[in-house]
Amino acid sequence: MKKYLTVVSSFLIMLCVGSIYAWSIIASELIAVYQFSAFQSQIIFGTVIAIFPVTMIFVGKLGQKIPHRYFGYISGILFFLGYLLASFSGGDFFLIFLGIGIIAGIATGFGYWVSLTVPVQWFPSKKGLITGIAAAGFGLGAVFMSEIFEIMLLRDFEILQILRIVGIAYGLVIFIFSALIYQLQDVCEDGEKEKLKVSEFVRKPIFSKLFIGIFLGTFAGLLIIGSLKIIGEQCGIEDHILVIGVALFAFANFLGRLVWGFASDHIGASLSLFLALFFQSISILSINIFTLSSFSYLLVVVLIGFCFGGNFVLFAKETSQIFGVANLGIVYPYIFVGYAIAGIAGPISGGVLYDITGSFFYPIILASLMSLIGCLLFLNQIIKEKKR
What we know:
There is one protein chain. This protein is mostly helical and about 400 residues long. It has a single domain (about 1-185, about 195-385), classed as Up-down Bundle (Growth Hormone, Chain: A). It contains 16 helices and no strands. The chain has helices spanning about 1-15, 25-35, 40-60, 70-85, 95-120, 125-155, 160-180, 200, 205-225, 230-235, 240-265, 270-290, 295-325, 330-335, 335-355, 360-385. Helix 3 (about 40-60) runs parallel beside helix 5 (about 95-120), helix 3 (about 40-60) packs antiparallel against helix 14 and helix 13 (about 295-325) crosses helix 14. It is globular, with a radius of gyration of 20 Å. The mean pLDDT is about 85.
């Protein structure tokens, strides 16, 4: 019973911290109401994405000494404090940056680490599926958040009021369900690797490939998701469809994590990564190629979200497969730093190019190219594996 409670609780915690993926709606309101630039709006989102993987490195070290559920408690408290600070900012960029970008970013790191690493220890023979379920919660978070935003904005709630309500409610959910995270002692599996030191695994070629791969794949997706609503506005899509688009992206992201995780248990992570990154590249590029209607816009959004979700399952699954389940919490945070760098580089690159050109045409080209390079990296890996 404990292992199932752990999976469910981890999923719900991920659901809360994953709400940051609805950021494009917040960004749009901050630009409209408080005259934020596209760069300012994206630096906050990018900082969250950068800080939480780095936080996971330190959490991974503490995880060998402190009961893991305490990391969930810390996550809930920091999430509450960060959003509360932003809600009382009066629209001041620095306070919103500090509250959501930094404090809530750290909260996300604590919550993500405990929710990803603990459940897979209970199911070592189903790494892809269990990692997919846990990570799916993070992807689904924006579905609920986007609906909450739409309902409350239609009822004339101001954006900072909404942030206050979210901080209180989500912080409480994270704190409560952290009590149902059960840690498996003496993790082991057949052929399990010994505990690794950082100096040992960072020198391995496979570590570099995974690090670069997650950077390329998530750079592309984060550039798009951080400005999804703004891109839709540029395409002439109606506001209601744009909000639906954010929700569908998140749902497709959620579904993609489950499907790619399940698929990787059967066809392998390398082939799954190649397919996910290839179709992500094509889907992103189609925004520039085709004149989008409401239907085709939503279809493209779903395809991008579905492929983007694979990044967060497949790299974690491959890490646990190569380095062992017991080392997942130690090794994966370092690989995930590639995602942290992408979290800064992707959204900011998109914001800067948009501020310069007044169009998302060139950011979309850049995102598609980065994803294509990533898929070629794993095509090369597949060819090498077949030769061996």
